[in-house]
Each structure stands twice: as C-alpha cells, then as structure tokens.
C-alpha cells in the first residue's frame, strides 16, 4: 500500500520567494498519485508554462494551488477506507501476477487464479465477490453492465481489459465509496485502475523476461516526451507478449497487450485532452472443474488430463478506447467528460473423451461437454418452444454421450458511453456533479453448437442449442452529486451525496423454450435506485483524522435472470440487490509514518437467488437472500530512512448468510446450491495479512513481500437422495472442513546499470521469485458428486486447485534516449 503523507500541517506549505508554490505542486505529483489526474496534469503543465509572463504564471498557479489544496484534503480526509497501489509496486511485479493478484497487497482482499498471468481470476473484497464489485478504468466502468464482473460465467476468463504493464496505479475502495469514486453497480467495493500517463521524458525501452514453466515475456514501450512545436503534446505506446506453459499441466496460454495513449495540454497547460486505446488478446486452456484430490495425490499436485482427453479452450479479445477532456474554467470551476468504447469477444471450445462421460467413471473431468449439462439431446423439429436441430448423436457417433462430447460457444458485447463531470470549488464547499450514460449490447450471440468432436460443423438448425439471433442490451442512466462541506477552520468535513441510477434492459428470445405463446418474445424491464451517502471526518490534530461513513450500494440483476412469466406475456425480473455499509476509523498521516485502522459492517439485502419451481416447470429468479459482512482492518507504512521502508496490513472478516435461500455458493459462481442461516461464506478467509519490506538506494531496488491467507470454509454437495428437490445435489458451505492457511513469500530485485554509449543510456537487470519457499497449498477445495446429465451420481469425493509453486523470472531491459 502506498501511504499518504504530508510534510507540513495543512495550510502551511513552503513557498518560493516569488510566492509561487512550485514545491507544493511537485510534492503532490510525487506523493499523491490517488489525486485527480485532471489536477495533476494541469498543475504540472502550469509549472512548465514558461512562455507566459511571470504575472500570468503567478496568478494561474495560485488559482490551481487552491484547487490542489482542496483535492488534497479530499483524499487525506476521505471518510471511507481506501488503499493505493503505486507505480513502483506495479512495475516490479512478475509476469505471473495480474491486475487482480496485485490487489492482495491491500486489506481484506483474497484472490487466486489458475495460471501464470491473467488466467481465470477469483476475487473477493471483504467477502464480496468480483461480480458484485465495481471496477473502473480511468473512472469509466470496465465491468460488464449486463452481467457484472468481466462477463457471464465461463466467458472472458483468459486475459483482461487492462494488464499490469498498462497501468500506473490502483485505488481500492472497499464498502461503499463516495459517489464520485463509487463506479457503477456495486454492493461492496470499487477498484479503480489508472492507465499509464505519457511520460515527459523521451525514451524507448526494449525488454524481455524468461521465467519458470516456459514463461517468456518480451516487448517495447516508447515515449515521445513533449513534442516540439505542439504546445506539450505527449504520446506513449507499449506492446508486449507473454506465453507460458502454465504451472498446471496442459494449460498453455498466450497474452498480447497493446496500449497507446496521448495527452494534449491547452489553455497554458491548465486544461487537457487525453486519449487511450487498449487492445489485448489472449488464448489459453483452463480447468473448468478442479481435479480429484486422489488423482493429485497419485500423479502429482499439478496433474491435469492430456488435452487429447479433456480440454477447455478460450480465445478472447478486448478493445477499449477512451477520449477525455478536462477544461479549467477558473479557480472555482473545472468541467470535463470522457467518452468510451469497449468491445469484448469470447470463444470457448470444450471437449471430453466419451470414456469419462460414462457414470462408471468416478470423477468430474470437465463440465464443458453438452451431455454433462443437458443429457440426451435427440433431434428436434422446428416447433414453438424448441430450438430445432437435425443432428442425431446416436446415428453419427453411436451414443448420446459420445455424440455430445464437444461444444463451441461464441459471445461478445459492445459498450459505448459518456461520463461527464463538474468540479465546483467554493470557499467552504467542494461540489462534484457527474454522471454516466452507457449502453451495452450483447449479441447477436454467434451460436452455440454441440457435436462428438471439436472438428464440428457449425450450422444453425443442425447442431445448435442456442439461437444466434438472441440479443440483449442494457442502457444505464446515472447521475450523482456530492458536496464536501469544510467547517471549524477546515477541521470538520461533512460529505453528503446521492447517486440516482436507472437501468433499462431488454432481452430478445427468438425461441420460446417454455412452449407457450408467443413463439418469440422480448423481455424488458426498467429499474431505478437512489443511493445516499454521508461521510464525516474530523482533524483531531494536524496528523490524526477520525472518520465515519454510511453508504448504500446496489447491483442490477444480470440480464439472463429475466424470464417469461407463466402467463406467457409478462417479464419476471428480480430487482437490484442492495447493501447498507457502515464504517468508522482513524488514520495518522505523518511525515514518515502512515497508519489506518477501521471497522466495517455491511448488510446485503435482496441477494439474487435462482431456483426451479417444480410445480410449473419454470426457472425463477428472486431477491430473497441476505448476507452480512463485518470486520476490522489495519494498514500502515513507515519510511525508516531514505533507503528502507516497511508497510503491511492485517484484516479480520466475518461473512455469514442471514437466511436460507438458493445461492451461488462459490466466488467463481461455478457451484449453485443452497445456504442456511448462520452459514459462513465459502472461500472467504477470516484472517488476511501482508508485509512488505522495501529497499532502494541509487540504482538498486529490492523488496521482500510476505502474505498470509487464513483458513477458509469449503463446500460439499448434499446427497441426490434428499427428499426436498431443492436440496438434491445442492452445493452448500461446509464449516467443518476448512482450507488450510498458507504463507507466501515473494522476492523482487532490480539494478539499473548506466551505459551512456551512443543512444543506449542504461540497462536494467531484474529478478523475481514468487513463492520463494516453494510452499505447496490448495487455493480451492470442495466435496462433490460427479455430474452426469445434470444429476449427481456415484460417491462424493474431494476436488481442488493447487496454488502456484516457486516461480523464478529473470528480466533484462535497455533504455534508449
């Protein structure tokens, strides 16, 4: 965590003889990356406006200084918990990490993934899962508006919209953040990623890394610096590629990331236009079902079936474009807006050798074969309520399970939107007004097909079990206003705010699966939420700030949860799930020491629940669940001297279900089941901790990072013989069996060697060792029955994902300038 610190009491900053506070502006740029990028660029460029008169410079910088001071107070006195991951922490991460794994350096965050790099991430913050969190990129929503998270289950699980090499900062706001930082649709936290700003120096870097598990990374990045004759235009580009065999057998993957960004100051540097384009691609194999522990004990912890026997392959593309403008009107008013475009595409191909589909085989090898999920799919006629297909699995492959061994799915969605923002600075008020208008469209679906092998024809009407004409979309209208009122000589800060969001959703279904009129229909619904926020902070001393806040958050139901009512003419749609979040804390912000201690209580209502009404045969979704999270968090950083620093965090979370309901029981949402009042949430450790010791002297950097993940509740399946149909084969938390705790130690080191020959200015050598002590541990563990035609068969057995063993990576980069 990057600490916030000030060298002088509020309002007593050092001044240059001419009254222009250059030191203040420079210090802010260096020490406060969490502040508004608008303010940073404007202030930094104002300092460089040497072509204006001294009088103009003094006036402009005094005006912007006033704005800086208010923004600084806004972060130092924020009434909510906040953690920051700075550029150095990101820069020195290994290729095995991702934008999600880095978050474990902040309190109350648990994360794991099943591959080197961004492979199938699973994330919780205070027990709140990824699909329930808001994620923003430069302030715009990067989460899927239709489904939450990156998208629907088993889509876009390889690669990500933005990679570690494309960002320079991350802000984590657990709970409910102030409205201008909250993002879209969250019931428990916001993670905001900041893309790399074009540097002011001109250079070009060429880099390469070689690591364990045949992991290779190579690429380049280049900065134009301020281009002469353009009034400060700066450009930056980066291209990198990583390929790996994966630490689990037979899970190779490749990631290609491209970033282009530009910044053009104007109005003597006080305003700016920014542009960002990110194009990332990824393809790789993942494990849709953990392997049996008995097999891992027999064949090795990282065993996986050969790809010729079982495979789940994904190929994904992510294109993001953001165009922003921030205009400095005067010392009281700054206006801006960001327009954005996000396109995601996902291709999935799954195969399972027919011998493993038989009920006699005791283990679940792969869920991505049609027979496991659907059972026999005989040819069907073109009739109302049926998606027709003439493919006969028995005639072509001899049996249903052999003829339904493979499937291919296509998916994609496109989001366009604009996010305007106005900052108003008054003598005792800082007012922020903002909004979001965005529309996401998914489909046409592209098709879902099944066959006996992956070398299949893809013909709608022959072997399709999804209609490519299906289409869903959601339009979001959101606006917020927040005010920070500064009283008692700027010692008391009151921050009221409110967000009003409406979501209009439609889902076109070309074939009525219920078999009742109409044959094709459109499900549509409009929901609106009003979300208040109130924060209070008080400067007990110049260094001690006490704070408390209340906020309400909401998440709209995924579009796939909308169904046709029994009458055949109405849409049955669950309402938003909501959270009431309370927290209070105290932070110490000194010259060399930063400390924060807080407690939180989050009550989540109307949680989405899925169940089958066996009397009518309809699948129904409803808001019946209730969950509660409460806990304590501590974090801090101490700069011992200019070379040494130590930082760390410790958190305790108690997350429980408050009533009985059908639920998605695991954070990855791959296990649907039933929970009971008082049950703890699975995969949510009570205790999490981290420690980082850093050393930096001249051109040498080193860090030792220790993390602790405490015991966590696992799950098991109730027997298929349960008398209540809702409980048959249902996954439920298993408090009696907990995943063992584990420690991980990471080592980072780099040394920059000055060269100064021709255009080569330096060479940097780096070393990363993740899991230095080579601990062996499980990330996920549960007891389950094998699923055969969507029914539990055989005897229950244990399944697990292993954690990554020791990963060693050597890097070399050269800088040309």
TrEMBL record:
Annotated localization: Cell outer membrane
Q: Which segments of the protein form a coiled coil according to its record?
A: none
InterPro entries according to UniProt: Beta-barrel_TonB (IPR000531), Beta-barrel_TonB_sf (IPR036942), Plug_dom (IPR012910), Plug_dom_sf (IPR037066), TonB-dep_rcpt-like (IPR039426)
Q: What is its main location?
A: membrane
**GO BP terms:** siderophore transmembrane transport
**Membrane topology according to the record:** Multi-pass membrane protein
The Swiss-Prot or TrEMBL record annotates one GO molecular function as: siderophore uptake transmembrane transporter activity
What the entry lists under SUPFAM superfamilies is as follows: Porins (SSF56935)
All copies of the TonB-dependent receptor-like beta-barrel domain together span 433-772
State the GO CC annotations.
cell outer membrane
Keyword annotations for this protein?
Answer: Cell outer membrane, Membrane, Receptor, Signal, TonB box, Transmembrane, Transmembrane beta strand, Transport
Outline the extent of the TonB-dependent receptor plug domain.
76-187
Pfam families, per database record: Plug, TonB_dep_Rec_b-barrel
Signal peptide residue numbers = 1-41
The similarity comment for this entry is: Belongs to the TonB-dependent receptor family.
Name listed for the protein in its UniProt record: TonB-dependent receptor
């Amino acid at each position: 965590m990057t600490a916030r610190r000030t060298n002088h009491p509020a309002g007593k900053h050092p001044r240059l003889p001419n009254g222009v506070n250059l030191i203040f502006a420079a210090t802010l740029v260096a020490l406060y990356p969490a502040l508004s990028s608008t303010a940073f660029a404007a202030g930094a460029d104002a300092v460089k406006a040497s072509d204006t008169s001294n009088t103009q410079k003094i006036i402009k910088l005094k005006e912007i200084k006033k704005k800086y001071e208010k923004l600084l107070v806004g972060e130092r006195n924020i009434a909510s918990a906040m953690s920051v991951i700075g550029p150095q922490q990101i820069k020195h991460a290994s290729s095995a990490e991702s934008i999600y794994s880095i978050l474990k350096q902040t309190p109350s965050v648990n994360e794991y993934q099943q591959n080197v790099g961004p492979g199938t991430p699973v994330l919780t913050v205070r027990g709140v899962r990824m699909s329930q969190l808001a994620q923003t990129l430069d302030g715009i929503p990067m989460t899927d508006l239709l489904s939450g998270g990156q998208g629907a289950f088993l889509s876009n699980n390889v690669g990500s919209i933005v990679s570690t090499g494309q960002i320079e900062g991350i802000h984590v706001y657990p709970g409910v953040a102030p409205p201008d930082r909250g993002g879209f649709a969250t019931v428990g936290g916001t993670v905001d990623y900041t893309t790399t700003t074009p540097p002011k120096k001109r250079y070009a870097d060429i880099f390469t890394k070689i690591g364990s598990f045949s992991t290779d990374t190579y690429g380049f990045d280049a900065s134009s610096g301020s281009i002469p004759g353009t009034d400060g235009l700066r450009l930056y580009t980066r291209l990198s590629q990583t390929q790996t065999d994966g630490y689990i057998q037979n899970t190779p993957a490749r990631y290609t990331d491209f970033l282009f960004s530009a910044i053009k100051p104007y109005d003597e540097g006080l305003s700016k236009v920014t542009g960002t384009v990110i194009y990332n691609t990824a393809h790789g194999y993942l494990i849709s079902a953990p392997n049996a522990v008995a097999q891992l004990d027999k064949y090795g912890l990282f065993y996986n079936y050969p790809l010729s026997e079982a495979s789940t392959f994904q190929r994904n593309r992510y294109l993001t474009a953001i165009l922003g403008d921030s205009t400095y009107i005067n010392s009281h008013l700054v206006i801006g807006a960001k327009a954005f475009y996000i396109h995601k595409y996902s291709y999935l191909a799954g195969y399972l050798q027919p011998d493993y589909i038989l009920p006699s085989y005791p283990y679940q090898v792969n869920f991505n074969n049609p027979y496991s999920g659907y059972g026999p799919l005989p040819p069907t006629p073109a009739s109302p309520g049926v998606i027709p297909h003439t493919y006969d699995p028995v005639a072509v492959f001899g049996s249903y399970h052999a003829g339904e061994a493979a499937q291919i799915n296509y998916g994609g969605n496109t989001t366009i939107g604009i996010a305007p923002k106005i900052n108003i600075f008054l003598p005792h008020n800082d007012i922020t007004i903002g909004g979001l208008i965005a529309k996401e469209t998914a489909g046409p679906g592209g098709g879902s097909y099944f066959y006996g092998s992956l070398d299949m024809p893809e013909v709608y009407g022959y072997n399709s079990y999804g209609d490519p004409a299906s289409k869903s979309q959601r339009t979001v209208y959101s606006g917020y206003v927040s005010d920070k009122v500064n009283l008692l000589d700027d010692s008391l800060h009151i921050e009221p705010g409110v967000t009003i969001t409406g979501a209009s959703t439609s889902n076109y279904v070309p074939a009525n699966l219920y078999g009742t009129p109409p044959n094709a229909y459109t499900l549509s619904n409009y929901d609106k939420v009003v979300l208040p926020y109130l924060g209070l902070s008080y400067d007990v001393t110049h260094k001690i700030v006490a704070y408390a806040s209340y906020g309400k958050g909401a998440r709209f139901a995924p579009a796939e949860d909308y169904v046709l009512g029994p009458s055949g003419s109405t849409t049955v749609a669950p309402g938003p799930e909501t959270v009431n979040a309370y927290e209070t804390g105290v932070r110490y912000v000194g010259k060399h020491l930063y400390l924060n201690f807080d407690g939180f209580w989050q009550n989540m209502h109307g949680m989405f629940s899925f169940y089958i009404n066996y009397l009518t045969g309809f699948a129904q979704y409803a808001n019946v669940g209730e969950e509660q999270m409460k806990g304590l968090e501590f974090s801090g950083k101490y700069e011992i001297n200019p070379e040494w620093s130590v930082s760390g965090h410790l958190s305790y979370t108690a997350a429980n279900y408050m009533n009985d309901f059908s639920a998605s029981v695991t954070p990855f949402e791959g296990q649907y089941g039933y929970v009971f009042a008082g049950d703890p949430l699975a995969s949510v450790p009570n205790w999490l901790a981290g420690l980082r010791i850093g050393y930096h002297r001249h051109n040498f950097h080193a860090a030792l990072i220790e993390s602790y993940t405490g015991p966590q509740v696992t799950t098991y399946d109730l027997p298929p013989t349960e008398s209540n149909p809702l409980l048959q084969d249902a996954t439920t938390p298993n408090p009696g069996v907990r995943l063992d705790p584990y420690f991980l130690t990471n080592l980072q080191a780099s040394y920059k060697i000055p060269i100064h020959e021709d255009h080569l200015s330096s060479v940097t050598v780096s070393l990363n060792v993740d899991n230095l002590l080579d601990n062996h541990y499980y990330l996920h563990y549960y007891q389950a029955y094998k699923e055969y035609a969507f029914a539990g068969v055989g005897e229950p057995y244990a399944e697990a994902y292993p954690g990554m063993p020791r990963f060693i990576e050597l890097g070399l980069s050269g800088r040309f300038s």
